Structure formats: structure tokens, C-alpha cells
Amino acid sequence: MRFLRIAATGCVLAAAGAAVACGESLGGARTTVEGGKYTVAYTTSPAPIVVGQHFSLDLAVCAKGGVPAPQSVRIDASMPEHRHGMNYRASITSPRAGVFRAEGLLFHMPGRWDLTFDVVADGATQRLTSTLRVE
Ligand SMILES: [Cu+2]
Fold first, then answer.
1. Strand 84-85's sheet: what is its strand order?
2. Ligand 1 centroid to residue 131 C-alpha, Å
3. Among candidates 23, 119, 128, which has minimal Cα distance to 68?
4. Distance of CA 83 from the midpoint of ligand 1 (Å)
5. Most C-beta atoms within 10 A of its C-beta, which of 20, 55, 82, 97?
6. pLDDT in tens, 91-101
7. What are 8-20's pLDDT values in tens digits?
8. Mind giving me the DSSP string for 16-32?
9. Residues near 46 by Cβ (< 8 Å), separated by ≥ 6?
10. How many Å lie between the centroid of ligand 1 and the Cα of residue 107?
11. How far apart, in Å, are the Cα atoms of 24 and each of 1, 7, 51, 52, 82?
């Protein structure tokens, strides 16, 4: 009985590990966005984002099974209800494969912002969007 319980727990942990593995190095407070081919996990600094203050973003891009690894990612943001974007362009570096850091982002108004991640791989781009409400 004891053995069976341990075995079952092991299975649960393995399944949970597969689901949360993307961006594990970013810590538990990360936001995860699921796309068809990729999963993006990110954290911001500061968190939460403060209107009118620059923020940076650390993200991991994880390819799903059989999908090519990401070559680059473009990060932008817009307010769909106001039909405008940011007044700043993020600069992006990649400290290691699949991990990116964007700096110089700024939300200049409170309200709904859509953060977009354009993942480029093998000549194709997939967009993942994370919707935020900034007070
Ligand atoms: Cu606006």
C-alpha cells in the first residue's frame, strides 16, 4: 500500500513537472501564455508594472513537441481599446537559447494593454498575446 502511494505521487509530480517546466528559472510568479506551437513564460520588473515607469521583462520561449526552437522574439504592446501602441521600442537580448530579456518598455496610460510576443522560427512567426490591466 505504501509503495503504491509513493508510485502514484511520483506520477502526479512528473505530470505537473511537464506542465510547469517552461520558464522554471523565472520563479513561481511568472505568467504563462499558451500558443499552438510555443509556450511563453515571463516576469516583469517591477511587478506589478507601474504606469509611466520603464519596466523590463524576462521571458522563456518553449517549443512544443516537434516544433523548431525559437530563433528570435519581438515584443511589443498596444492598447486595443485606444488603438495605439507604446511610445517606446523594447530592446531585446538573449542571454541563452530560449531565454530573452526585454528592456525599455513603458506603459504611458492606465487601462488594458496587450503584450505581444512574436516568436520567429524557421521562417514563420507565431504571435502570443498576454492581456494585462494596469492601474
Ligand atoms: Cu491608451
1. 84-85, 72-79, 111-121, 124-134
2. 14
3. 119
4. 7
5. 55
6. 999 999 899 99
7. 443 344 334 444 4
8. HHHHH-TTGGG-TT-EE
9. 53, 55
10. 9
11. 33, 24, 27, 29, 34
What does the pLDDT look like over 93-125, one tens digit per residue? Answer: 999 989 999 999 999 999 999 999 999 999 999
Listed by start position, the domains of the chain span 2-134
pLDDT tens column, 18-68: 444 799 989 889 999 999 999 999 999 999 999 999 999 999 999 998 999
Distance 56 CA to ligand 1 centre (A): 20
Hey, what CATH topology would domain 2-134 get?
Immunoglobulin-like (2.60.40)
pLDDT for 10: 39
**Grid cell digits, residue 121:** 522560427
Q: For the whole model, what pTM was predicted?
A: 0.83
In whole angstroms, give the CA distance from residue 53 to residue 35: 29
List CB-based neighbours of ion ligand 1 within 5 Å: 79, 82, 109
